[in-house]
């Protein structure tokens, strides 16, 4: 990848973006498409330039619903709101719960109404955290877990039953303490996770010992 990118204009920004994502090989881009990569790249990068260059090089596939915000009519204010919040494809919004979009910079009721209209017109679904909170209302999770469950496509108890503790660790963005607390909340409510090829300490030790280790 390095030699190919060096031959292209503005390759320094592309290389820096890949370093931020710890991507060192072209094959590691196979798990992304232009929409999912756009959500991973931090705001401040010229996301469309990076994505189009990687696409031209054959490293990054397109997405069926990859509609650029420059290719559809919207107010100038709305386009600026999207850019300030790192949104260059409308489909990126599906990765965010409604509650989080409402916290985007400069998004109020009027802006949210325009977003809803655009998404309805182009078939983009925006979901809420409410179904997740309702499904796990008796679990007393830390509030941080609900957006993480959203990103991990965990919307019901059945969705988590086929996961292992290691899957939960990844869903919790490798936050060990949050994983441990969530694991115990699940177990307290009769939800046992699947096994995998190793075990975490909180799966082996009594709860009071596991918690004490990480205080």
Automatic annotation (TrEMBL):
SUPFAM superfamilies, per the entry: C-terminal domain of RNA polymerase alpha subunit
One GO term (biological process): DNA-templated transcription
What protein is this chain from? Answer: RNA polymerase alpha subunit C-terminal domain-containing protein
Q: Which GO terms describe its molecular function?
A: DNA binding; DNA-directed RNA polymerase activity
Q: Its domain of life?
A: Bacteria
What positions does the domain RNA polymerase alpha subunit C-terminal occupy? 63-116
Q: Entry's InterPro entries?
A: RNAP_asu_C (IPR011260)
């Amino acid at each position: 990848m390095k030699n190919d990118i060096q031959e292209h204009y503005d390759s320094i920004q592309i290389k820096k973006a890949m370093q931020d994502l710890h991507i060192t090989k072209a094959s590691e881009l196979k798990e992304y498409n232009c929409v999912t990569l756009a959500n991973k790249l931090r705001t401040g990068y010229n996301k469309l330039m990076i994505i189009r260059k990687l696409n031209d090089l054959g490293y990054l596939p397109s997405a069926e619903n990859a509609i650029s915000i420059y290719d559809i009519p919207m107010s100038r204010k709305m386009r600026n709101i999207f850019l300030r919040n790192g949104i260059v494809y409308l489909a990126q919004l599906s990765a965010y719960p409604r509650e989080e979009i409402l916290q985007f910079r400069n998004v109020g009721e009027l802006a949210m109404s325009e977003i809803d209209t655009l998404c309805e017109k182009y078939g983009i679904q925006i979901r809420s955290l409410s179904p997740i909170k309702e499904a796990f209302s008796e679990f007393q999770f830390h509030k941080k877990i609900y957006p993480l469950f959203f990103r991990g496509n965990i919307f019901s108890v059945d969705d988590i039953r086929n996961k292992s503790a290691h899957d939960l660790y990844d869903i919790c963005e490798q936050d060990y303490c949050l994983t441990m607390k969530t694991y115990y909340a699940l177990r307290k409510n009769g939800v046992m996770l699947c096994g995998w090829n190793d075990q975490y300490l909180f799966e082996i030790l009594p709860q009071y010992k596991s918690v004490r280790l990480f205080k």
